[in-house]
Design a protein that fits this description.
By secondary structure, the chain is mainly alpha-helical. The protein is 60% helix and 3% strand. The protein has helices at residues 2-50, 57-64, 68-79, 83-97, 106-114, 119-123, 223-231, 239-264, 268-273, 279-282, 286-304, 306-316, 319-384; strands at residues 144-147, 153-156, 162-165. It has a three-stranded antiparallel sheet with strand order 1-2-3, with no helix packed on it. Strand 1 and strand 2 (153-156) form a beta hairpin. Helix 2 (57-64) runs antiparallel to helix 13. It starts with a helix and ends in a 15-residue tail after the last helix.
């Protein structure tokens, strides 16, 4: 009985534990495989949004910056078709506000007429662009040195101007002695003025405390050069002007969307009854306004999509390349981590199967020996009770 309790029960627990570990490991392997598929799909999706394949992340991201000029050209071409939408919006606003001289979307209006010009030309349309070639406006003249018989040197240029120089000027000595008097005995008629010793000039010592005035090791920022560099950027490259273009596109898109909704509810008869309503508003159709809205939304979506946002950040920040690459590779690192977990789970399954194979024969042998021992005990007890049948009850019968 004691041998049965300590051996057979222990073998059963080991087998149950090994079976449970195997089942849990197999289930976790399936979950990890699903996570790997999900992480890889998310990685490919992000790469597709940015516009790269994802095989060589850093080099592909660096190559995206070269595509920005072509994308800006395409956006400029799209913006060139929104003049009807701007005119329709301007007519509508002028009519409702009764302001014939009111201008709407100024930077979009300029962009449609002049294109993607530098910021300086947009701010000062009447000022011509300055040439950056400094060599063509500066003439270098080689000087010619001549020397006369007195030792004077003349520097002569092409316009025959001469500058006289004397390398060793001679200063004549002036005697300050008058008669037999020495220089210290001359009376110049200047009386000595006594200012006294108690005059207060109001000088006070100012305690500046621990204020650092930055006199040593200071950093000088040339704001003029930074401003000039920004002005040389185009309207779409400059952050400030590009945001203005996006804001005006949002404004124009919101107006056209509202007009489409109003025209779809058959409320145009109200505008037709208003006196002096411009014909552009009265004759406008829902299909035409919808086309204007599509024309406006096309460059707006191009400027605000995730790909353009990443491209502009890659162009303006060198650190963003590493940060974006690490963000994309994080999905691959999670996938690799799941692969390592699957490998560990497979080892657990192998170990559980080894344990099962090792313990199962021992359990069978223990059960056989226990049943044999049970039969012997029942037979011995039956002899003691004059041949009466004896049956041992309890957990031993569940083996």
């Amino acid at each position: 009985k004691q041998w049965y309790s300590t051996q057979s029960t222990g073998f059963k627990k080991q087998i149950v534990r090994a079976t449970q570990v195997k089942q849990d490991s197999v289930k976790k392997q399936a979950d990890c495989s699903n996570n790997i598929t999900k992480y890889e799909a998310k990685y490919r999706e992000k790469c597709a949004e940015i516009g790269i394949v994802g095989d060589h992340i850093k080099s592909e991201l660096a190559g995206l910056v070269l595509d920005i000029p072509d994308l800006m050209t395409e956006i400029s071409r799209s913006l060139g078709h929104i003049q009807p939408a701007i005119s329709y919006y301007q007519t509508f606003v002028r009519f409702l506000l009764n302001s014939p001289d009111m201008e709407v979307c100024p930077i979009l209006t300029y962009f449609v007429k002049h294109g993607n010009t530098p910021v300086s030309q947009w701010e000062n349309p009447g000022v011509p662009m300055e040439s950056s070639d400094s060599e063509s406006s500066v003439e270098v003249i080689d000087p010619i040195e001549t020397q006369d018989k007195n030792g004077c040197v003349y520097i002569t240029t092409d316009n025959q101007e001469q500058i006289e120089t004397d390398p060793e000027p001679t200063v004549p000595e002036v005697s300050t002695t008058i008669g037999n008097e020495s220089p210290d005995d001359i009376d110049f008629g200047i009386d000595t003025i006594d200012f006294g010793t108690d005059i207060d000039f109001g000088e006070e010592t100012v305690d500046y405390g621990d204020i650092d005035f930055g006199e040593e090791g200071g950093i000088e920022i040339d704001l003029l050069e930074a401003g000039e560099e920004n002005k040389n950027q185009t309207l779409l490259d400059n952050t400030v002007t590009r945001n203005k273009i996006i804001d005006e596109l949002y404004e124009l898109s919101a107006f056209l969307s509202a007009r489409c909704e109003e025209m779809g509810r058959d409320t145009e008869s109200i505008l037709s009854e208003i006196p002096d309503c411009p014909p552009e508003i009265q004759t406008a159709q829902l299909v035409g306004v919808g086309k204007m809205l599509a024309t406006v939304d096309s460059p707006l979506n191009q400027l605000t999509c995730d790909k353009m946002r990443h491209l502009l950040l890659l162009k303006n920040s060198e650190k963003y390349l590493d940060r974006l690459g690490d963000n994309l590779q994080s999905q691959l690192r999670l996938s690799d981590k799941m692969q390592d977990t699957i490998a560990e789970l497979k080892e657990r399954v192998v170990e559980a199967e080894r344990t099962y194979e090792d313990v199962e024969p021992k359990l069978k042998r223990a059960i056989a020996v226990t049943k044999e021992l049970k039969g012997c005990v029942e037979k011995h007890l039956s002899i003691r009770y004059k041949g009466r049948p004896v049956r041992i009850m309890g957990d031993i019968n569940t083996l």
